[in-house]
């Protein structure tokens, strides 16, 4: 299960990075940046669950990243 989530996350990160580098439109660049942040959040939650499922450090950090991304989009 861990490998599948990491492959999906790296795929999303790669698509977001490619889109961020090649985009000429600001809205598209922000969407690609959000895709990158969501891939990173998937990694935080997955590794937090894999290493210590009793603590919610990865999920809490992901919530902070989502809040920062929402502030950046506003």
Automatic annotation (TrEMBL):
Belongs to the complex I subunit 4L family. Keywords: Chloroplast, Membrane, NAD, NADP, Plastid, Plastoquinone, Quinone, Thylakoid, Transmembrane, Transmembrane helix, Transport. It is found in: Membrane. Gene3D superfamilies: 1.10.287.3510. The chain crosses the membrane at residues 6-23. It comes from the Eukaryota. The keyword Lipoprotein does not apply. The keyword Chloroplast applies. Pfam families: Oxidored_q2. This is NADH-ubiquinone oxidoreductase chain 4L. It is a multi-pass membrane protein. GO terms for cellular component: NADH dehydrogenase complex; plastid. GO terms for biological process: ATP synthesis coupled electron transport. InterPro entries: NADH_UbQ_OxRdtase_chain4L/K, NUOK/Mnh_C1-like. One of its GO terms (molecular function) is oxidoreductase activity, acting on NAD(P)H.
């Amino acid at each position: 299960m861990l490998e599948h989530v990491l492959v999906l996350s790296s795929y999303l990160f790669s698509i977001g990075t490619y889109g961020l580098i090649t985009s000429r439109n600001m809205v598209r660049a922000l969407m690609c940046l959000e895709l990158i942040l969501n891939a990173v959040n998937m990694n935080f939650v997955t590794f937090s669950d894999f290493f210590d499922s009793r603590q919610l450090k990865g999920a809490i950090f992901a919530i902070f990243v989502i809040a920062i991304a929402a502030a950046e989009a506003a």
